[in-house]
Amino acid sequence: MRVAHNIAGMNTARNQGIVKSKLGKSLEKLSSGYRIVRAGDDAAGLAISENMRSQIAGLDQAMRNADDGIGMVNTGEGALQEVHAMLHRLETLAIESANGTFDDVARENVELEKKEIMEEIDRICGSTSFNENDLFDFGQPPVPINPPEQSNLVTFQIGPSENEIMDVPRYFMGSKALGLMGKDGMTEMELGTPEKANEAIEAIAQAVQAVTVVRSEFGSAQNHLDHTHNSLGVTKENMQEAESRIRDANMPDEVTKFTANDILLQATMAMQSQANAVPQNVLSLLQNA
Q: What does the alpha-carbon distance between residue 258 and residue 30 come to, in Å, rounded to a whole number?
């Protein structure tokens, strides 16, 4: 027996500290829900999971980009839907004006309605925008006009890497860009005489076809973006599951470890008490000497 050093007590205290540390780590994992709370828990796993988290964040933003793209093409397609309706009305007016039963007064009324329709087509094509980005180019299209004329491209970032992009054409749009002009190609078409009305019928039909092409582009882009959004969602879900397997705590296992360490801590505390009692026995020997 020794009194200068309580070796048994020191040993018990050291083991008690180890158990307390394990118990603290179990508490961290149980309270946070993560198996890897700090790099020391699993350095390799932490590096892999952080890389996955970066990719998941990129996928989230790409999905939002796809949603914005869908909103943009829907806005453009909705505007052209109304332009289509107005072109059909222009076609009806031209066919009416070309009929010999119309008098000059009736044709003047047709001209007035045509003028209002043309102004509204120009207003829609010149003002339709998404997040302050014009969806159509209302500038001067190339000459000779062959609608629809492409102006440039709108590029969508639809993935977390630089190569995952999608281009949607941006077209010249408006009465001039659609070729709704007179025979000289410079002045606005007229419906005031049967001859001019007949000339206008063909131009209007070509404009209808041009708007159909652009609407088809928007429709194709929307379908593409819908599929992209769904694909990104599946990829994100699978990657999130993989990241969870690496990073998240297995709660039953952690509870088992916590319970075992808690029992062990209680045991070391009891042994600490016993180890501290040993020197007291030496005192008994000295008192009886």
A: 9
Q: What is the DSSP secondary-structure string of 203-247?
A: HHHHHHHHHHHHHHHHHHHHHHHHHHHHHHHHHHHHHHHHHHHHH
Quote the CA–CA distance of 5 and 122 in Å, as a whole number.
Answer: 98
Residue whose tokens read 């076609």 = 91
Q: CA 18 to CA 3: how far, in whole Å?
A: 25
Enter the DSSP assignment of 57. Answer: H
Among 218, 203, 240, 258, smallest CA distance to 60 is for: 240
What are residue 168's phi and psi, to 5 degrees?
Answer: -120, 125
pTM of the entire predicted model: 0.78
SS3 content of the chain, % helix, strand, coil (to 5): 70, 10, 20
Q: How confident is the model at residue 286 (pLDDT cuts 50, 70, 90)?
A: low
Residue 40 phi/psi, 5° resolution? Answer: -65, -20
Q: What are the Cα distances from residue 10, in Å, to 17, 186, 266?
A: 11, 102, 16
Whole-angstrom distance, CA of residue 210 vs CA of residue 194: 25
Round the average pLDDT of the chain to a whole number and report it.
87
Crossing angle of helices 251-287 and 7-32, in 10° steps, is 160
Q: Show the tokens assigned to 229.
A: 């959004």
Residues near 139 by beta carbon (within 8 Å), at least 6 away in sequence: 151, 172
Residues 146-203 pLDDT 10s: 899 999 999 999 988 888 999 999 999 999 999 998 766 677 888 888 888 888 999 9
